[in-house]
C-alpha cells in the first residue's frame, strides 16, 4: 500500500479552560488569608484596580436587579459593596446588633507576638555564658540539629564532620547546653533527658534513677505491680515516685515555637437571633475595589499597543471583581444550605450533626458538586458551638434500627463524651461502648468501628486509659 498525503476536515468539541475561568476556580478554593494576599497582589499589579476609601450605600433597587443587570453594573461602577452587601442577612436585624457581631468573634490571641524560637533562646544563653569562640561554634552546630521536641538528631560522627572538634569537646559542650533553660535540651534519649533534669534538681534516689533508666516502658504499659515487687515497695510509695517523675518534662522543646503562630480567621459568622440564624460574611480587612477613574479616562485617547494594554487590564480587573462576586455569592449560598440541612447542630451542638454529602448541597443550590467541594476547602465558619471547617459538616451515615440515619461525627462526639465520663479505674472497652451506643441511639455499631473512631480522635485503648491510683 502506497503512502500519500491527504487533507481531512474533522469537527470535534473540547473543553478549554480560559485564564479567566482558571482564575475564578482558583479564587473559589483559596482560604480567606490567601484571598486577601491575591487581592492585594492584583491591586499592586493592575493599574485599573483601586481601593475605595468610602463605603457606598446600597439602595433597595440594587437588590431587585437581575443577574445580567448586576454584572453590567459591576463592570461599569466596579463597586465592592455590590458583591459583599447583597449576600448578608444583616438587613433583617438592627444595625446596632450587626455592628457588634463581627467584634464578638475577634480573637484577642491574634494580637499576641510570636514566641522566641528554641534555637534563638539557647543561642542567647550561650553568648551570655563563658563559652569560648570554639565552643560557640560547636554549640551552634548542636543547636542546628535539635528537633522541635528538644532532642539531638545528629550523631557524634556527623557533628565532627561539620566542625573541627574532638568527641570529648563535643560531649563537654553538649553537657553544658543540656543544663541551660529548658533543662534537658539536646538529649539523645528520653532517659538522658529525664536524668539530666533529675541531676539538676537533686533527685538522687536510686529507685527513681532505676525507674527512669530501665523501666520507662514498664511504666508506659502500666506494669506497676511487678515494679512494686521488684523494688519491694508499696503501691503508694510507687505512686509517689510516679508523681515526682510527672514533674519532669520529657519534651523540653515543645514550649518554644520556631515559626509565627497562625490563627484561623472565619470566613462566615452564623448567629442565632430569635428563631432565625443570621449569616454574615467576614469582610474584615477586605479591600473595597473600584475602577481607577484616571486610567478609565486615559483609555479614551489611547491607541495601538497602549490601547490593547489598557483593554487587557480593564478586562482583567472587571473579571477579578466578577469572580469575587461569584465567590461571595457561592459561599453564602453553600453556608445557607448547610444551615438548613444541619439546623439541629446549630440548635443543640455536635451530637445532633446529621449525615450530609456534597451532592445534597449541590442539588439544593443548583450548582456542580465540584464547585461545592472547592468552596468548602479551607473555609471556616464561626458557630454558637465554636469554629469549624465547612468540610466538618459533611460526614457519613450510620443506619439506626428504625431505618433513619445518624452522622458519624455525632457518634464520635458521643464516644468522646462517654470516655470523658468513665471511671478511670474501670475504663469502658470498645465492646461496652458499642453496647451503650446501641442503647442510646439504637444503632448497630461493630466493635472495630468504635475502635476506628476512637483511634481517629487520638484516644488510647481502655488498657492504656486505666489508672491504678
UniProtKB/TrEMBL annotation:
Keywords of the record: DNA-binding, DNA-directed RNA polymerase, Nucleotidyltransferase, Sigma factor, Transcription, Transcription regulation, Transferase
The keyword Secreted is annotated on this UniProt entry: no
Record-linked InterPro entries: RNA_pol_sigma_54, RNA_pol_sigma_54_core-bd, RNA_pol_sigma_54_DNA-bd, RpoN_core-bd_sf
Tree of life domain: Bacteria
Domain RNA polymerase sigma factor 54 DNA-binding, residue spans: 308-467
Region of interest: Disordered: 46-70
Compositionally biased residues, Acidic residues: 48-60
Keyword Ubl conjugation: no
RNA polymerase sigma factor 54 core-binding domain boundaries: 108-295
Family: Belongs to the sigma-54 factor family.
The protein's name: RNA polymerase sigma-54 factor
Species for this entry: Pseudodesulfovibrio sediminis
Name of the gene this protein is made from: rpoN
Amino acid at each position: 500500500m502506497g503512502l500519500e498525503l491527504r487533507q481531512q476536515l474533522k469537527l470535534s468539541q473540547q473543553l478549554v479552560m480560559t485564564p479567566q475561568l482558571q482564575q475564578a476556580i482558583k479564587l473559589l478554593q483559596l482560604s480567606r488569608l490567601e484571598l486577601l494576599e491575591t487581592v492585594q497582589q492584583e491591586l499592586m499589579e493592575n493599574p485599573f484596580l483601586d481601593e475605595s476609601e468610602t463605603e457606598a450605600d446600597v439602595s433597595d433597587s440594587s437588590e431587585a436587579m437581575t443577574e445580567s443587570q448586576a454584572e453590567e453594573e459591576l463592570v461599569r461602577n466596579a463597586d465592592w459593596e455590590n458583591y459583599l452587601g447583597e449576600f448578608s442577612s444583616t438587613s433583617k436585624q438592627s444595625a446596632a446588633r450587626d455592628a457588634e457581631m463581627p467584634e464578638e468573634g475577634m480573637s484577642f490571641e491574634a494580637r499576641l507576638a510570636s514566641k522566641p524560637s528554641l534555637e534563638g533562646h539557647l543561642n542567647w544563653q550561650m553568648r551570655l555564658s563563658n563559652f569560648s569562640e570554639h565552643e560557640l561554634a560547636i554549640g551552634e552546630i548542636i543547636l542546628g540539629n535539635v528537633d522541635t521536641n528538644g532532642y539531638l538528631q545528629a550523631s557524634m560522627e556527623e557533628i565532627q564532620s561539620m566542625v573541627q572538634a574532638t568527641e570529648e569537646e563535643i560531649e563537654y559542650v553538649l553537657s553544658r547546653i543540656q543544663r541551660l533553660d529548658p533543662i534537658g535540651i539536646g538529649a539523645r534519649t528520653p532517659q538522658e533527658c529525664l536524668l539530666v533534669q533529675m541531676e539538676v534538681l537533686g533527685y538522687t534516689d536510686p529507685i527513681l534513677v532505676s525507674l527512669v533508666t530501665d523501666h520507662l516502658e514498664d511504666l508506659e504499659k502500666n506494669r506497676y505491680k511487678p515494679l512494686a515487687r521488684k523494688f519491694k515497695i508499696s503501691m503508694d510509695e510507687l505512686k509517689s515516685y510516679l508523681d515526682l517523675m510527672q514533674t519532669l518534662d520529657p519534651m523540653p522543646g515543645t514550649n518554644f515555637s520556631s515559626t509565627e503562630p497562625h490563627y484561623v480567621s472565619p470566613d462566615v459568622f452564623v448567629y442565632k437571633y430569635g428563631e432565625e440564624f443570621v449569616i454574615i460574611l467576614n469582610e474584615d480587612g477586605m479591600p473595597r475595589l473600584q475602577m481607577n477613574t484616571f486610567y478609565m479616562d486615559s483609555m479614551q485617547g489611547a491607541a495601538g499597543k497602549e490601547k490593547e494594554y489598557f483593554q487587557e487590564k480593564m478586562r482583567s480587573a472587571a473579571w477579578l471583581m466578577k469572580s469575587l462576586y461569584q465567590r461571595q455569592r457561592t459561599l453564602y449560598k453553600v453556608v445557607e444550605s448547610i444551615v438548613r440541612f444541619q439546623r439541629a447542630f446549630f440548635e443543640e451542638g455536635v451530637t445532633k450533626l446529621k449525615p450530609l454529602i456534597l451532592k445534597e448541597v449541590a442539588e439544593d443550590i443548583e450548582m456542580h458538586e465540584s464547585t461545592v467541594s472547592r468552596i468548602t476547602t479551607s473555609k471556616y465558619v464561626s458557630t454558637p458551638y465554636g469554629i469549624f471547617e465547612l468540610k466538618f459538616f459533611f460526614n457519613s451515615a450510620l443506619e439506626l434500627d428504625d431505618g433513619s440515619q445518624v452522622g458519624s461525627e455525632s457518634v464520635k462526639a458521643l464516644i468522646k463524651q462517654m470516655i470523658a465520663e468513665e471511671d478511670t479505674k474501670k475504663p469502658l472497652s470498645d465492646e461496652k461502648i458499642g453496647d451503650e451506643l446501641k442503647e442510646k441511639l439504637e444503632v448497630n455499631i461493630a466493635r472495630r468501628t468504635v475502635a476506628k473512631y476512637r483511634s481517629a480522635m487520638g484516644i488510647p485503648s481502655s488498657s492504656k486509659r486505666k489508672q491504678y491510683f
